[in-house]
Specification:
Blueprint lengths: L5 H9 L14 H8 L4 H11 L4 E5 L20 E9 L2 E10 L2 E9 L14 E4 L6 H6 L12 H10 L4 E7 L2 H8 L2 H10 L1 H25 L3 E5 L11 H21 L3 E5 L8 H7 L3 E4 L10 H8 L4 E6 L1 H6 L3 H16 L4 E5 L9 H15 L3
Length: 383
């Protein structure tokens, strides 16, 4: 078979078409930063040259005013006055945001841990002590904070595509109605309770995020973007949502997202790094092209052979190799064995991309990283 570029190989796997070798596309931003000192696209391409793999590069452009990760200097929001107050409490930087809308005032408070404090995750992640939405009256105010995606510049996305060329596949990150939208505007556990206690409130809050998400998809499609990364980890069963809520609330949103993208000839790569076995058929029927990260036990619940049997002919499966218990803490021999098994099982019949259960972490021994990539090419070419 004629050798393929990384981009050709990945898109062929998406479409269940023949490939010259099974693509290998791990998540590894955290490790890149440690090994090279950076994790940008140029560094990713450098790593692909050194270790011989097929990169995905996810580019984020859109902002949600509700997001924990929203910048302090938000773009102007028509009709809304915005200011911040900041102070420190011990090692934490505290930021209060005040939005004055025509319907009234919204405020939230975010705590930012000190740099390098891994107690709060890799970033480390900020956390809310006060949320924008306190009650139903705040929903009419929250609507004023929706940013217009039509004003977004897509220049950096298309520059990333130019820079990547055939060496990587560039995806545009679009969050779900929950991810860094409703789930950051209102406490997630309380929101789960509201599904049963106040369905009208629950649906209205989710509808605000859904409108934002679909508007972003439409703006991106109009600009010429065709490959999308559906960031849905807030919606995960591991976060506490049930299959019942998935079927009644999240499936229509995901289906509409997929239909709009497919109508313009695009692809949808769906991200959930938690448990998902009860949702396999649901996700396939919603129309996603790729499901990642297929996290195995003990962190997730994915049985790769069962997932392959149930939806492997309809959805490209991506990921699976455990980043912690195999790649970071395992031996090169263990890694080779796990990678080989994943390629044999997942590669049967096509539609598989070897990856990882999430980003390979800093602190992972270099010999383990090399063992992962060596096994990927050794057995990926043979499958």
């Amino acid at each position: 078979m004629t050798p393929m570029t990384s981009r050709q190989r990945l898109l062929a796997a998406y479409a269940h078409q023949p490939v010259d070798q099974i693509p290998c596309s791990p998540r590894l931003n955290a490790w890149l930063s440690e090994y090279y000192g950076h994790s940008d696209l140029a560094t990713l391409l450098r790593a692909a040259d050194e270790f011989d793999f097929d990169p995905h590069h996810v580019r984020g452009l859109f902002q949600s005013a509700a997001s924990l990760n929203a910048p302090r200097n938000l773009p102007p929001i028509p009709g809304v006055e915005y200011r911040t107050e900041e102070w420190t409490e011990g090692a934490f930087r505290i930021v209060r945001r005040i939005f004055t809308t025509p319907e009234g005032v919204l405020t939230d408070v975010t705590c930012h841990p000190p740099a390098g404090d891994r107690t709060y995750g890799i970033a480390p992640n900020p956390f809310r002590t006060e949320y924008l939405v306190k009650d139903a009256e705040d929903l009419k105010r929250l609507r004023w904070l929706s940013l217009d995606p039509a004003r977004t510049s897509f220049a950096s996305y298309f520059e990333a595509e130019r820079q990547a060329g055939e060496r990587a596949l560039v995806l545009l990150n679009v969050m779900s109605s929950l991810c860094h939208r409703a789930g950051d505007a209102y406490p997630m556990t309380d929101l789960m309770a509201m599904y049963y206690e106040d369905r009208a409130f629950f649906e209205e809050l989710l509808a605000i995020g859904r409108s934002e998400m679909l508007a972003e998809v439409d703006a991106a499609l109009e600009a010429g973007v065709r490959h999308f990364f559906a960031n849905w980890y807030y919606n995960s069963l591991s976060a506490g949502w049930s299959p019942r809520i998935w079927n009644s609330v999240f499936v229509p949103e995901l289906t509409e997202m997929a239909e709009r993208i497919h109508a313009r000839g695009g692809t949808l790569n769906f991200y959930d790094d938690g448990k998902c076995m009860p949702l396999l058929e649901t996700l396939a029927e919603a129309g996603i092209d790729v499901l990642q990260t297929l996290t195995p036990p003990p962190v997730g619940d994915v049985d790769l052979s069962e997932a392959k049997r149930r939806i492997g002919k309809r959805v490209c499966l991506m990921g699976h190799v455990d980043l912690l218990y195999v790649i970071q803490r395992g031996t090169p021999e263990m890694i080779e064995h796990v990678v080989k098994d994943a390629l044999v099982i997942g590669g049967d019949g096509g539609g598989f991309i070897l990856g990882t259960s999430d980003s390979i972490r800093d602190g992972t021994p270099i010999e383990n990283v090399r063992a992962y990539f060596a096994a990927a090419r050794k057995y990926g070419a043979a499958c």
